[in-house]
């Protein structure tokens, strides 16, 4: 009986130990699958906020362009109105001349009877013709003046409405852009603060922090391979190494997951490489370095690792194969064979954007 009890107790203890171990393994797996610093979420939130800010800014610029176009169209209409007014003045001029002529040779008194009897002189006939024409022109002038006056009133009302609507819309959009800019700045500041807590040596408020702003990654990408200014690069936790902002932030997240798994940070032998450094490596290790100006190291998008990862099929290497893509990093196909470089890993923003 005692033996049976002891066996049962032993089995119960074993089951409890196994359950506890399984629980620890599950917790470890959950921790490893989660971005420990939540940097990826912060970076993507910053990028999303920046995209919203960019779209709103473009909409504001388009609105301003539409305002300018409307003002231009309105000016063209007013110019047309002024030209019509000038034409009207030209029409009035001969009328005035005819009125002056009639004043000098009036049609009335003795001038009408000869006209009615058929004995009118050429001057009298001319004066009568002028009088008839004057009546017609006067009527046309009155009508055109009325049309021009109505058009001027309509354009004035249209101009006032356009300007009022434009000013209101522009003010609303400018306020929206300002709000989005403040939100974007706040997110980037939170991201920078998180990096500092993880040991990234940057000044949270100074210029050094600009290199770790993920929104400046495109700016860094505009420089030639190997000629990215230091201010456009974000330092890693591994002293002396840096990458382009988005690659650096993703690498820090990967590094934290690696540290939780292996109890130490990743070992880095090389990250961003200047053009001069690439030339040195190329001539010192022919066949094991890209042609200067063509390396992903020169774009701030590649690292060379050590600490076990450099050994093909090691525990560290396999872990990297299984986990690196969660953070946008991968081992390129060529590095498996030609040339064989298990230590070389690259960052691809497209992979990261799908996560």
Automatic annotation (TrEMBL):
<dbReference type="GO" id="GO:0004180">
    <property type="term" value="F:carboxypeptidase activity"/>
</dbReference>
<keyword id="KW-0378">Hydrolase</keyword>
<dbReference type="Pfam" id="PF02557">
    <property type="entry name" value="VanY"/>
</dbReference>
<keyword id="KW-0732">Signal</keyword>
<dbReference type="InterPro" id="IPR003709">
    <property type="entry name" value="VanY-like_core_dom"/>
</dbReference>
<feature type="region of interest" description="Disordered">
    <location>
        <begin position="20"/>
        <end position="48"/>
    </location>
</feature>
<dbReference type="GO" id="GO:0006508">
    <property type="term" value="P:proteolysis"/>
</dbReference>
<dbReference type="InterPro" id="IPR009045">
    <property type="entry name" value="Zn_M74/Hedgehog-like"/>
</dbReference>
<keyword id="KW-0121">Carboxypeptidase</keyword>
<feature type="domain" description="D-alanyl-D-alanine carboxypeptidase-like core">
    <location>
        <begin position="241"/>
        <end position="349"/>
    </location>
</feature>
<feature type="compositionally biased region" description="Basic and acidic residues">
    <location>
        <begin position="26"/>
        <end position="48"/>
    </location>
</feature>
<keyword id="KW-0645">Protease</keyword>
<protein>
    <submittedName>
        <fullName>D-alanyl-D-alanine carboxypeptidase family protein</fullName>
    </submittedName>
</protein>
<dbReference type="InterPro" id="IPR052179">
    <property type="entry name" value="DD-CPase-like"/>
</dbReference>
<feature type="signal peptide">
    <location>
        <begin position="1"/>
        <end position="19"/>
    </location>
</feature>
